[in-house]
Amino acid sequence: MPSAEHPLLGRPPRNPATNGFWQRLLDEATAPYRAAGRFAWHFARGKLGRDPVFRGMLERGDFNHGGRVVDIGCGQGLLVSLLQRCGALAQAGQWPAGWPAAPVVTAYTGIELMPRDVQRATASVGALVLPGGEQPRFVCGDMRHTALPGCDLVVILDVLHYVDHAAQDALLARVRDALQPHGRLLLRVGDMDARRGFRISQWVDIVVTWVRGHRAPPTYGRPLAQWQATLQALGFRVRAVPMSAGTPFANVLLVATL
């Protein structure tokens, strides 16, 4: 059984020289959401601009693991918009020299339970053209039952706790089966052992879900060590990256590679 590479690896320090590039990337990745209305645009600006996970994954090169991406709990499709602009800016020779190579996404499938979010995604970024000529594919469905296409990278950010532990285990096994050899899963979860931060994360999650126009379902958390052990038992090597620096939360990004 593979063992964890390291229990916790911190986020690389921010390079102020790339702040201007990040702002440009943020502006370009969120611009398409104006087509879906003020709410969609403001939500995109807030989520991409304030959540450290997106810039952190780019700075570490977490996405650079093949071109076929499955985004489970994709919401408005923010990730594909961000990644498409990364590729376009890199192609134009405008990628920061100090960052890992820009990700190149050749196929994208977003899975989302909420029809309104799928509608916003389709209206905003459904017509984007990815390298190779494909357009993003959005599926309105329950992640517990929706078929997963063969892929190189699966992204699950802050949604797996909405289903019970048995359903979590079943989905993670299906993710493992959908990934090609040496494929990667990027999974952000809350660490239940960090009690105060975990409770705050849950409360904020409920508020954000309500703002998006949805009712927050019950949640099913786990301690970080249990998340890691579950992934290792499926054949993943696991690296845990704290995602709560400067915040009161208990979020951890698990970078899991077959």
Automatic annotation (TrEMBL):
Top-level taxon of the source organism: Bacteria
SUPFAM superfamilies reported for this sequence: S-adenosyl-L-methionine-dependent methyltransferases
Pfam family, one: Methyltransf_2
Alphabetical GO biological process terms: methylation
Keywords, comma-separated and alphabetical: Methyltransferase, Transferase
Domain O-methyltransferase C-terminal: residue ranges: 101-187
Stored InterPro entries: COMT_C, SAM-dependent_MTases_sf
Gene Ontology molecular-function annotations: O-methyltransferase activity
UniProt name for this protein: Class I SAM-dependent methyltransferase
Lineage, top ranks: Bacteria, Pseudomonadati, Pseudomonadota, Betaproteobacteria, Burkholderiales
